[in-house]
Amino acid sequence: MASDNYDGKHIHDRNHLNGDVISHSPKKPKLYSFITDSEIQSEFSHHDPAVARINNGSFGCCPASVIAAQQQWQLKFLRQPDHFYFNELKKGVLQSRAIIKELVNAEYVDEISIVDNATTAAAIVLQQTAWAFQQGKFQKGDVVIMLHYAYGSVKKSIEAYVSRAGGEVIEVPLPFPVSSNDEIISEFRRALERGKAEGKRVRLAVIDHVTSMPSVVIPVKELVKICREEGVDQVFVDAAHAIGCTDVDMKEIGADFYTSNLHKWFFCPPSVAFLYCLKSPRSSDLHHPVVSHEYGNGLAIESAWIGTRDYSAQLVVPAVLEFVNRFEGGIEGIKKRNHDAVVEMGEMLCKAWGTRFGSPPDMCASLIMVGLPACLGITSDSDALKLRTHLRDNFGVEVPIYYRAPKDGEVGSVTGYARISHQVYNKVDDYYTFRDAVNQLVSNGFSCALLSK
Predict the structure, then answer these.
(1) Are 268 and 60 in contact (CB under 8 A)?
(2) CATH architecture label of 92-320
(3) Which residues pair with 159 in a beta bridge?
(4) How many angstroms from the chain centroid is the CA of residue 219?
(5) What is the pTM assigned to this prediction?
(6) 143-147 vs 202-208, strand pairing mode
């Protein structure tokens, strides 16, 4: 795993568009103590204090110091847009890309592009796949494989780009609850066999690193290795939750494409993500879906200017790095503490409700699936959404609920799981509030069927 500490490294990268050079020389270590609990709460004092916010996974969070840095960038643009465009923007974006390159252990800064979010990154990769079908490089009926639990918008992108271009899509059915990586690996191998049947070619595998709902850490290194062994053309890892949440190392993972949002677990304001593209002859055929003046100058440069808009979220990465390095162990320390805390809080909730996790703790990152009492009567996706709304409106608890259909013959099984997150701003009381809300519903004889009346 690459070091997440950027300080002390010397990076010397060239912007191929304007010839600018950014050099980061080693700095003397700052003499200050690590961030205190009160300082953490101050950084997130803009959060609604009436809400137990245990859903960092959906929209992330941004500390006050980073918001202030963002506002400074916004004001620089508004004061003198021409100076900002010609003298500030490209240098700032390159600096952010250089930091990300070190954080994820990429080989070259040109392999890192900054885009709005993982959905945009998926469109870039899948657009290239669609062109390959349309240009005859891929044959009608060639296959793209994705996980059944792929994020909804990514599934829609595959439908929009791949299916319309003539590609066949095969979903990998994943078990849930899941007890081991072997279950995932076995299902993935079977899907590859189906994809290669009758002489077809698997052109692209889309693999999540941390699935959204239900949330499980996928053994991406193993699945990428299998793809290489089985002749899959390219591998795209959709890791919307990954950076700041679990280990991210481009050289170890070995995918062709990898994307992760920086606003979910890396404290950036919305919305910003990176897209890693392994340097190869084929990477020159990647383009941003929004065509602007920079078209043809490489994906990273194209993505850095898609017209007049607010680029401040892409420029605050150095400020975010300063924030995370106020914590002992930097981002590595934050990841470990969040994981340990979410497991501890999940175990407390499972004990209170007599349920269990949806996967072992070692298959979780900073999110974990906690079984809800069966008596709540969650019988559909609609029930799950209504219960989530009920918890928000009546108890001040913000937490996603997942419906898991019972298997044939199952009676009285757990069909509802809460996806709880833990981020540095969370307190034990947030989880106690959730526990007590569910206990109150159970003691009142509540059932989701009552919400439809």
Answers:
(1) yes
(2) 3-Layer(aba) Sandwich (3.40)
(3) none
(4) 15
(5) 0.91
(6) parallel
